[in-house]
Amino acid sequence: MQSFWSGPVSRFLETPSDAILGVLAEAQIRHFRTNEVQQLRAWEGSIALLRGALTGPQEQAAWWLLLEYPLLRLGRRADAVVLTPRAILVLEFKVDARHFAPADREQVEDYALDLRDFHAGSRAHPIMPILVATDASTPQPATQELPMLGVWNVIDATAASLPTLLAELAQRAPLPAKALHPAEWCKAPYRPVPTIVEAACMLYARHGVADIKAARADAANLSVTTNYILGAIAQARHDEEKLVLFVTGIPGAGKTLCGLNAAFGLEGEARATFLTGNPTLVHVLREALARDAIAHGADRRAARQKMQGAIQALPGFRDHHVAAPEESPAEDIIVIDEAQRCWSAAHAISKTRDRPVRLTRSEPAHLLEIMARHTGFAAMICLIGSGQEIHDGEGGLAEWGEALRGCSGWRVHAAPDILTATDARQFLGHLANLNLAADLQLKLTMRQVRFAEASAWVDHVLAGDIDTAAQIARVGGTALPYRLTRSLPAMRAWLHSASRGHRRAGLLASSGGKRLRAEGLGAELPHMDAMAVAHWFLDRFPDDVRASNSLEVVATEFSCQGLELDYCGLCWDANLIRELGRTPWRARRFRGKNWTRVSGAEAIANQINTYRVLLTRARYETVIFVPIGDKADRTREPIIYEAIADFLQACGARELTPTALEETRIPEPLLL
Questions:
Q1: By Cβ atoms counted within 10 A, which residue in 243, 374, 535, 550 is the most buried?
Q2: Considering the domain boundaries, does residue 373 fall inside one?
């Protein structure tokens, strides 16, 4: 994707305004099939302002201007990006605006943060977000020390002050170690990593599907896996075969993104739906898709009703078709999120004994039978997360293998690791029509933007492998995205400071962390309440105190599995503890008035997996809060919490210091 117009400032000043407007209007029609009068008027005003502001010092003649620069992850375009030898200026114009609205400041700051995080040519230079409210009162100059690198605080400007501001920046911006060359910057890769919610909206609207598949081209495995899925589906449809694809991968590797692409990105005859047993994911994706459709002019009620079919709760899909054995599904492709969580036969029979729809076999067996009702082609894409089982009765890949051996007619594609897994629940076993394909295993993290080894570090921490975890931390240095604190106020302060722009922060805790109530963390997000979940994940504080950024309500593993935040505050309780002389973690459960030990391999593994889920939700950083405890409370012994904190610190988690707070604190908008 290209800017609508780009070139040296000198060429911009020489080109008639009508010619530039013509180029912008043509590009607008080509990309968005619209030519709104309001948009043209905004362009006229911003072009006129830029002409006056860029006719200044001689140095500005060497600057470069890009108009309507695309920011894929945000699904928006920055009004103007000005490249100078010293810095990158990101300008957002609000023509006729009389105030500097907080939402507008967040918007331009988010543009700047997006360039810093995902544009390779922007990481070694200061990035200055500038909000131009044309008719606002002229801001007073401020005398703040200017940072060398990274994203500056938002700079306010008006039509009257913009020329002086740009001239001032040309003189005061610090010289970086390497001058910025516009031609190199324009060629540098821009590889955004959309959140699950952003990707779902873009894919469902059929905008930018190719761009999403190409995003993060350095993590080629995602594109390879997506292409393999689409190719296998096309071949099975041609051959009128029934197909099962198992996509395996580490937490945050992009399994859900691949699944959404298969559900929403297929053209032609595809009739697909995205199924998940995770009610939180259902609520958030449905509401996000509905809000996006409404924002683009759809009827509110119709939009929400339409999303019922696009994103479906797996239990509802299952029960409907089990109760109607003669009915074939409307969909010939189903994507099953976290398919390893499907119930085993024993659990399914026991769990539904007193329900209107009773299951007589495992969930995988029922789903295979339902999709086998199609004559000819049908496909099931099963997304398998390693170490993500957190409930009793989750059968894992082993249950799928057992179900497939009990039926015929399905061609199965999976990665070779399913035959070498040491965890019995992750072992598929041998099948007659099994095709092994390494492309179906996602090994690279997509969620963790800054540190590819984050998932490996978590694995070694939860395995009690202090030496390997510490080695990963030493190699990563300050890039390791895990900090440790014993102060809840310090964690909250850091999260508030870190979540700049539209970045989202939130508090997480294990559902078994019952003694966190003593810390004032007793309010849990009700994961079955659709609107409460939507407000927490989609809305913003301070506009809505129900939003995650308010840092008032904690989300448990049931609320956050399959979703993500930019910054997480993980509150660690004494339900997973360290004991002297033991390598494994000790799992505990709070019953009545005391802690009791958890017994049974599956129950212990589920408890450890709970913390794996919580530790892998952040796209940027996780702050781990370990309470101090209370000597007078036998359920909160300080020595227990001290052992947890000492172990995490020995594994490399960095202390949350006052300096760390200063790194991300946002003062009032910067005025020059």
A1: 243
A2: yes
